[in-house]
Amino acid sequence: MAHMYAAHSERRGSRHPFTGDSLVRLSTPGIDPTSARLYCSKEDTSRMPMRRSGTCRTYQILSLYGWTGSTRCLNTQGISLMSARTLVRGPIVRLAAVSLGSNIVDGIRVAAFAVLTTAYADSALEVALVATVATLPKTFLSIPIGVMLDRWSKLRTLYLVNLARALILVGLAVALHLGAGSILLLCAFALFFGMLEELYDAASVLVVPDLTEPNQYLKSNATIRWVQELGNGAIGPFIGATLVGWSATTPFTLSAGVLLIIALALHSLQRSHLLMPDQSSAEGQHDEGRQEDAQDECVAEVNSQPKAATIETRTRTFMKELWDGLVVTWQNPFARNIVAVFGIWNLFGWMPESILVVYVIEALEGGGDTYGLLLAITSVGALVGGLALLVTPDTVSVRWVTVLALGVYALTLAVPGIWPSFWVAAVAFFVQGLPLVLLSGALSAQIQLTIDRRFLGRVYAVIGTVGSLGTTVGLALGGVVADLTSTPFVFVLGGVGIGLAALVSALTFSSTTASIKDD
């Protein structure tokens, strides 16, 4: 039971879609971060991603306050050497492919690491300790990571993080081969790998606007989310559980090799020059920032305190950027409401997750096989629901997508608590997964369309931090409520709480759109 709980606590979280997966043209003056209105000056039009000779592109975006934004006719002089379709499909397909490989590795690691932990742990408390350590980076480092990603190249970050993850996995495999395994070693591995995983997850979402056009944000984000569920939920855990039965080192050695291949693919994508135009502008702004830093260093040298002055200046700059991200999140109505909705969702959604294995054993009179089957059924539901994106229009209402998805989630969470039965739970969990991919894509796209790109990483980090805090409290609260009442009651209570989140989204999300309408 102990190792099943550890695997569940880490893998099952993928069902909550807002895990830190970037957005609109933050570096352009045409975006007002406090609303969804799009303004373009004549100077801005030369930097828009789509150009066609003799044509006029009109974009329309709905305001967060229910107001239909103005449309602008963009100046599109010149002939593009690459069609928009080629620009969108090429990089996103390649990003989805590497995302699939990376998430298969995550699934392998989760299953193998959980089984490995039970071999060294003397109690369930030690198993839970390792699982808890792995979540600490997401809770405490999300905002600093967001600040750093707003400065760094996202593709280069993905490339370097995969290299680092491969090296850590090789180190773990060597240590296990030499017989140096222990709970302390596993905790250290969980901490460092968790830091790199949080950095990778955030960058993989924030890189989307660098590779595609605004009217493709919805399907691009949802595609990435779909392959994540496929790799992390349907393929990886099964492979990991099988490989760790052969040898303790096999799953980690194989995963390191896969990550090295993925790193090379990302390096190739970075050098392919398929970034959207304002990515280069952003990098230019970073270059200017670095030049300013260099000037500050020169001044500091003249003052005979170069090192101290540089550290102090950069520390002030870092803290200012962090504070700016908090302010932008608070001032943007959609981002502020997202924080509230996902805080409530994670709090109540993780309550049943923490005691699911106990529910299976006590209420359903099942075992480990039943528990694993229910996890797989949920992932299958998300994958099937993701296929609906093939017929999803480019523009959808974020309000009604969120209300529908959370309403379905609340109902399918409460029903297994009211009627404890394997088949009831199986059908409920399958239906529960259906709208999650669309919800993830819609919310990510809307944030990308309404937040100034300069602050995008920090806004995501704020949302992720609040969600992580809700997760931590929800896990603990689920166990307490189960001990005081019963495991089925925790499911009912969780369904009621998520129903509250659906109500909040219905009242606070205006008639927003998850995509720019391309007329």
TrEMBL record:
Locations listed in the record: Cell membrane
CDD domains for this protein: MFS_MefA_like
Transmembrane parts of this sequence: 92-121, 127-147, 167-196, 243-266, 338-361, 373-391, 398-419, 425-447, 459-482, 488-509
One Pfam family here: MFS_1
Molecular-function annotations in GO: transmembrane transporter activity
Keywords: Cell membrane, Membrane, Transmembrane, Transmembrane helix
Annotated Major facilitator superfamily (MFS) profile domain residues: 309-519
Keyword Magnesium: no
Annotated InterPro entries: MFS, MFS_dom, MFS_trans_sf
Membrane topology label: Multi-pass membrane protein
Region (Disordered): 1-27
GO annotation, cellular component aspect: plasma membrane
Protein name: Major facilitator superfamily (MFS) profile domain-containing protein
Native species: Actinomyces viscosus C505
Lineage summary: Bacteria, Bacillati, Actinomycetota, Actinomycetes, Actinomycetales
